[in-house]
Amino acid sequence: MSKALVCSCEDVTVEDIRHAVAKGFRDVESVKRFTGFGTGVCQGKSCLSAVGALLAREKAQKPEGIVPFTPRPPLYPTELSLLASFPVDESKPPVGGVPQELDTFPATLRPEGAVPTRARVVIVGGGVLGLALAYNLSLRGETDVVVLERGYLCAGASGRNGGGVRMQWGTAANIELAKRSIELMGRFARDLGINVWLRQGGYLFMAKTKAVAERLERNAALHNKHGVPTRMLTLDEARDVVPGLSLEGAQAVSYNPEDGVIFPWPFLWGYANACRKAGIQVETYTRVTGFELSDGLVRKVKTDRGDISCDTVVLASGAWSPEVAKLAGVSLPNEPHRHEILSTEPLKPFLGPLVSVLDSGLYFSQSMRGEIVGGMGDPLEPAGLNMGSTLRFVSRFARALTEQLPNLGHVKVLRQWAGCYDVTPDNSPILGRTPGLENLLQLSGFVGHGFMMAPAVAERMAQWMTTGASDELFTRFNLRRFQEGKLEREDMIIG
Amino acid sequence: MRRLPDAASRGKSITMDLEGETVPAIEGEPVACSLIAAGESVLARSIKYHRARGPYCFSGACSHCLMRVDGLPNVYTCRVPARDGMKLERQNAYPSAKVDVFEAIDWFFPKGLDHHEMFAGVPVAEQVMAKVARQLAGLGLLPTAPAPERLPVETVRTRVAVVGAGAAGLAAAQVLAAQGLPFLLLERDSVLGGRLLSGVPEADAPPPPAEGLLAPERVRTRVTVIGLFDDEEGHLLAAVSEGTGEPRLVRVYAERFLLAPGGHPPMLPFENNDLPGVYASHAASLLVRRYGVAPETAALVGSGPELYALARLMTERGTKVVAVVDLKGSPPADAPAGAVHGSEPKAHGHNAVSGFSYQDASGRRVKVACDAVLVAVAPSPSFELARQGGAKVEYDEAREVFAVVADAEGRTEAPDVYVAGDVRGARSAAQAAADGRRAAEALVQSLTQAAVGGKS
Ligand SMILES: Cc1cc2nc3c(=O)[nH]c(=O)nc-3n(C[C@H](O)[C@H](O)[C@H](O)COP(=O)(O)OP(=O)(O)OC[C@H]3O[C@@H](n4cnc5c(N)ncnc54)[C@H](O)[C@@H]3O)c2cc1C
């Protein structure tokens, strides 16, 4: 069949690029995510300039707005076993990293014209939480909403995460939220018309120390109480679930077959499309630069495209939340922490569940496309909005991964990248009203699990916002708890 | 593709095992080269539509030649030297790459397949699709054995690291050598020279590097740089060295980085541009110049001086050039006879190129029979390392590529990163060499100034 290919690694055609442009994805980063071009084995070497030329020719973008996507290391596919050989001094904290153009979206990418001068609700941040909330507001009839996003959709953690969704948590609140989210994810395509590729292959948690093993056991009992079918596996059973898995040193293994993985990117378009259809404005490449306050209320949101007066502002800026809150004089206890992650060449399916060693924070799964996607926290990572990629990470990760699944040694890494966790002192989110600024609502602090919580949290928050009915979620997780010392500690954090 | 008569002398004749069949090869030559010379044009099936694929770029910049080699998935057969008894398997095809039943996907979806919206929300279809997609996903199989223990990482400290031994990198290295400055030149290929040796010949190009041009301890071949990172000590290049056979990781710390990695052969979007038998000009010139392998008849499409130079090269080496189509304008006065201005190129054929057509200036569609289509367009600058080091990259509207922004001396926004050659946007070999020299001189000066500044 006759087709004109642009990216032959991923079979992306000229028509696909045009289709993306017609759908409103007009910059290289967005087109990349929508079509998948440049995400295959060659990582854009053969297609990037051709796509740039197409966007220029289609007048999708001014020449100054045609900026390349960030080239991710490694430059050529590189075996995990080789990367694992790089020596790492574990006693020293990581530094720097391959830089990313995240602060410098060219002004030409900004949509022309001003933003609306007034809206009932302004949501700061077009990540999964901001968009999910906007969508849920529209379901309840509130469509006088503007979502402001300083970059492209997927620029924040929502475009950079591992796509893991699980019900295995340490607190009743999180178990219930995750359960509901997974239910909503299963219906996402029906409700919003976009496939998000939920695959319930389970989550297999491994504990290598006694303390963590006890935690897994205790939590499994809690899961069962909430109807989550988590089981403690024997090592033989675990081997059956993941053939080839090394269980050396494993003290306990828990497994819930209903956990799974999703493909994060389409979530954002799904929500954004539905919002736009309902009349909500989703403004990308629009940055919030300040707030106008008086009498304990936010009156206006200032942006680099004009000011918007409003009744309610929602702070859903993920790892940037402390920075944005500061613009309103509010100090949040959240801290951004870099988390690095990588993806390998795609392989035919062989790995069912997402596997995680809870002690070290190693996790890996096989995506719908066949890639092994995984990451591992670094205990020495300093706080900061750093999204650089380091050799230290690929080395630590490659070593830990090949220890668990030795046959991955020859498998090649295609790209590594980083995102920021939005970490709170108790690993639980900040939700609800801001003390002293009543119409500033908090929706941040989701650490490494905001994606899987978004559908359920957004549903509850939209309900709470539009009906005024009280919901304990917004008191339990209120900012006030940090002053009052009533922390909501979650202990099943991968990281 | 066929071997030219003088090709027999190029190496030892061996055989490889292609899915149980014995195919002839020449030892040390890229596997993909031996395969196409043996008449095997389909090496792979594409990931989504299962389209037939044969090698395109011969420089590890596309994915058309990936095969399972000795049990390892997704190996660039355009980069791996042939060895006797090598076991080759095509991937992503059932029951075989030649008769792949999944090829039907390509035919069922002539307008392409939007997997975001397809069957979204259609209750049963959606679930079936998810299951089918999962089974069809991925390229290659998980290896059945762990990798061997790797050699310990080698650490090199030098004052200047030069990446790429083409015209630009070599000229730069010569300047550094003349100045007596410790440097290390890293080259991915097994020989120095880059385009000077394997590219389309240029009249004013500098001569290919002579034996002993640079001291052996200053040069490393078969070293692929994979990233420009930083750590506690500052910027470093991470590279995979295959010089001694066993791959090992090398890290190179330097005070300055002179990046001259050239460019990647891009895809030129036209109908069936991925058909086996469509080659980048770089691939065609490399095959004919280094390995003596060339098509019988070829159509050429593209723009710029490389298009015409390639036509001359192919004709000289016995390929019948049946069309030379310039997409950007009328051919210059000295263009080979028969060259025309045309548009809407298209490759024809089922699993391999059998013809080529285009629209001529009067709007008429012209079709010719051929067994290869050669695409000559400006390479896409390999800006990745420079960008990772902090340099700026911009879209160059005239050349339709992303290129590193640098001043005339090759200085970038990152004080320790210099660039030269095609990485700045397509250059002739002579310009690239001049770039290399200038950048090296500026770099030497910056080091001297730094030393003086440091003392004061
Ligand atoms: C490596 C990694 C792996 C992860 N793995 C998982 C996982 O497996 N499962 C899971 O559930 N979660 C995971 N997470 C966490 C998850 O991605 C986040 O919790 C979630 O995406 C947060 O969504 P958000 O909308 O709050 O933030 P974001 O997606 O970061 O959105 C915030 C947005 O605000 C924008 N913004 C910032 N400042 C401004 C401003 N001044 N004006 C306008 N806009 C602004 C940003 O550009 C950004 O797009 C992972 C995170 C990382 C980094």
TrEMBL record, chain A:
The keyword Oxidoreductase belongs to this UniProt entry's keyword annotation: yes
A Pfam family matched in the record: DAO
UniProt GO cellular component terms: cytoplasm
SoxA A3 domain ranges (all copies): 3-84
InterPro entries attached to this UniProt entry: BFD-like_2Fe2S-bd_dom_sf, FAD-dep_OxRdtase, FAD/NAD-bd_sf, SoxA_A3
Keywords annotated in UniProt: Oxidoreductase
Domain of life of the organism encoding this protein: Bacteria
Residues of the FAD dependent oxidoreductase domain: 120-464
GO molecular function: oxidoreductase activity
Membrane-spanning ranges: none
The UniProt record lists the keyword RNA-binding: no
Protein name: Sarcosine oxidase subunit beta
UniProt source species: Cystobacter fuscus
TrEMBL record, chain B:
Keyword Oxidoreductase recorded: yes
GO molecular function ontology, one term from the record: oxidoreductase activity
Domain FAD/NAD(P)-binding as annotated: residue spans: 159-434
Keywords on record: Oxidoreductase
Name this protein carries in UniProt: Sarcosine oxidase subunit alpha
Upper taxonomic lineage: Bacteria, Pseudomonadati, Myxococcota, Myxococcia, Myxococcales
